[in-house]
Amino acid sequence: MAGIVHLVKTNPALAPLFIFGGSGVVGGIAYMGHCLRSNPDVIIAKTKPEKPWERIQPHENVKLWSPNKEFWDNRKANAAVPDRE
Q1: Domain coordinates of the chain in residue numbers?
Q2: Is 5 exposed, middle or buried (0-12, 13-18, 19+ CB in 10 A)?
Q3: Which of 49, 63, 56 is nearest to 79 (CA)?
Q4: What secondary structure letter does DSSP report for 46?
Q5: Which of 8, 17, 36, 65 has a CA positioned 20 to 30 A from the CA of residue 76?
């Protein structure tokens, strides 16, 4: 760490390189942590069920981004109504 600080002090043009490179590394690690915490298809604990994707209900949207919000709203509303046979 002291070597990097000394290098930046002697050549200030390298500061943006370390700032943006470091923020990219931190952002990548943060995204991997987000995926490990919130995605149902990532298995960390071996004691939980082996197929976590079976815990997803048909009306749940697990996508990071969905362009069709109305589809999931309609599906959630229809899931509350029991099927009539």
Answers
A1: 1-38, 47-85
A2: exposed
A3: 56
A4: T
A5: 36
Q: What angle do CA 67, 68, 73 make, to 5 degrees?
A: 135
Q: How far apart are CA 50 and CA 45, in angstroms?
A: 9
d(CA 48, CA 51): 9
**CA 56 to chain CA mean position, Å:** 17
At position 27, the amino acid (one-letter code) is G
Question: Angle at CA 10, nearest 5°, toward 7 and 16?
Answer: 65
Tens-place pLDDT, residues 23-62: 999 999 999 888 888 876 766 766 766 676 777 777 777 7
Q: Report CA Rg, the chain.
A: 23
- CA gap 45, 37 in Å, rounded: 11
The rounded distance, in Å, linking the Cα atoms of 53 and 38 is: 12
